[in-house]
Structures are given as C-alpha cells and as structure tokens.
Amino acid sequence: MVSHVTMTPFLYPPLQLKVVTPKLELHGATDDLLAQLLPIVRAGIVSQPPYPFDDPMSLYEDNPVRERKWLQAIWRGRGTVYPESWRLYFVIMLGGKAVGMQDLIGVNFDTCQTVTSFSWLAPDARQKGLGREMRAAILHLAFEGLGAVEASSEAFFDNVASNRVSEVLGYQANGADWATRQGEKALLHRWRLSRDDWAVHRRNDIELIGVETCKPVLHIK
C-alpha cells in the first residue's frame, strides 16, 4: 500500500495567510489554488512587447516547460526560508476566481526589515485597478503585519502600469538600473517606499488573517 502525505496549511502557516480588501483577496498559494492558475500560465501571461519580467523567468518559456518551471520555482521558494530572506506567495482571488499572483519578498529582513514585491495578472484582469489594489494589500501585510520599515519596487521603463502604481502609492524614485529580458538589455526604474511615506497612504479597510502564526516560520518576533 502506498501512503500519500498531503501538506496542509496547518503544517505550513504561510498557506493560511490571507489579505482581504474590498475589491479582492490574497490567499496563501496552496497547490489547489496554483492548479486554478495553470490554465492562465499555460495560455501565456505576456505574448508581445513590452515584456515586464527580467531574466530568468519561467513565464517566458514555451509550453509545457513554462508550467513545470513555474511550479518548481514556487515549491523551492516555500522551502527556502532564512531570517534574512524569504518569499511569500499569494494567489489573487476576484469573486472566487484565481486571476494572478502577488508575492512579498523579505530582503535582509533580519537586519534591515526591507521587502520587495512581484506580481502578475491574467490578461483579462488588467486595466481594472487591481494592480494598485493588490500592491496596497501586500504593502499592508508588510508594514502593518510583519513590521517592515521599507519596501522597494522596480519596473522596466516601458512598464507604465507598474511604475504608475508605485508613484500613486507614495514610492519615491530611487534611481535606475539595467537588466535583461529575453536576453535583451533594458532600463529599470527603481522605487523606494519608507514606512513613513506608506503611513500617509495607509488604509483602514484591509484585513490581515493568519499573520501571527506565520511569524515564527519567517523568524520574525
């Protein structure tokens, strides 16, 4: 007889995390929720310029490599948790439907309490104000829930939507850098958001669920 062991959210508290706003919910990315996103990943997140992701990026790969590499990267990230660095993966739920992902990444968190973020949306979920809403949600988790003191973001110069979200949410321009996307170099805009600047835009309609049980896993006191 073969015994099957299933990882439950109770065994890995980050899978229980939720961030709830009036428009959408961020749910810890369980395998069941990732399965709901597979058709979107299979169809392709982006198929023409401007390309939003820097290299290496599994979402640029061809099927079925894209799906496999995407899942493997998330599974590796779950198991790579140190006091200084970790990554929380969330599935964006809109009306009960999975429409994208929003990640929160701890960077030198044990000493500097800094974070950055990464996200994507299904093509048919864009241009509806969700990008700003899900970034506001993840920033609320970072600052209010986990005690971050600074958040950073970066986006290619022609990623107008992402740069606009950063600007509207109070990030300050923080220089530029170069990166490659599909092997071609391109200019990145860099952004920085201090806790004080976030507080100016802080919302009181975002609910955090499961934060306290998650902190020990992330080595946060």
From TrEMBL:
It comes from the Bacteria. InterPro entries: Acyl_CoA_acyltransferase, GNAT_dom, Ribosomal_N-acetyltransferase. The keyword Transferase applies. Keywords: Transferase. Signal peptide: none annotated. The keyword Aminoacyl-tRNA synthetase does not apply. Residues 24-194 form the N-acetyltransferase domain. GO terms for cellular component: cytoplasm. One of its GO terms (molecular function) is protein N-terminal-serine acetyltransferase activity. This is Succinyl-CoA transferase Rv0802c. The lineage of its organism: Bacteria, Thermotogati, Deinococcota, Deinococci, Deinococcales.
